[in-house]
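Put briefly, the fold is written as integer tokens. The lines below illustrate.
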Amino acid sequence: MGGWRNRAFQAVFDALDKTGANARLASRTRGLGLILTLHHVRPFSGEPFAPNRLLEVEPDFLDLTLTRAAELGFDFVTLDEAVRRVKAGSSDRPFLHLTFDDGYRDVRDLALPILERHGAPATLYIASSFADGEAELWWLSLEEAIRRAKVLNLDLGTEERFVACQSTTEKYEAWAKIYWTLRAGPEERLRDEVREMALANGVDILGFAKTLCMRWDELADIARRPLVEIGAHTVSHPMLAKHPAEVARAEIANGRDAIAARLGVVPRHFAYPVGDLSAAGPRDYDLVRDLGFETAVTTRPGHLTAAHAQALHALPRVSLNGHFQNRSAVDALLSGAPFAMMDLARRALRRG
């Protein structure tokens, strides 16, 4: 159940494809290159209630993405080479780099063979507590609690305490209400409420990290692959901007140091958990830069341009979204046209 927003995005992708606008606009809307964001790569379970579906793509779609990128003239490059081209301010051919957040086993098992077949380098951003198997992946706990429950009892900061979630429609409505209400507030409250809901519905809150995430020995093995670089992603995956500076700094530094201690390599690249403006801002960019990282990536959408040479600790990425797994979406994202359209819309709203 993607909703009107997903249908609207797909309609834009289809229109750009059918009119040939991607090809016509690319010379003006495409940047020097782009960094792709991915999380899971695995077959879809078919589960009717799957609000985190946007965080997973199927192996065939990843293969299609890389095939189309090669056909459209993209070079597959390391993150270091991407930065070099950004600093140079020009590139004979557009470039593409892949990033995978959180360190899921399916990336090793299903994505890596595809990357190796295409010769496409990737950076894996690892949250150290995920690799320890001691993390609470709260968004998955929330999904599973809603899946199991018929009604949830929680504090949303209003008079309403009971949220119905019996049918699939009600479950999606409950997800939207709970997720966005809690996301807007303090992260401690979000995690406490999700933990309480999960435990009340028999959800193993540590089971997701244990089942889904690679352990240190597995990461050591994948880090030896020529196409893979390990980056840092904090200790416990907090939205840094919601915490005091000393907490954010400790999360960044301790996550990096754990990777260095366990894998024998000091990460040079960083990804902000969640990564939008509510989760990471200028203070956090400065913290990451001051801790010696060479780059850091957000989840704000867009292609890379020469201007990003002055913003290496706040780089945009383009998400491969599980709701849009088709060629028209790939071609639109690679052209940069949707981001140019969004920028025009923002400017129009500011003028209005």
Notes: The longest strand covers residues 95-101. The chain has two domains: 31-134+214-321, 138-200.
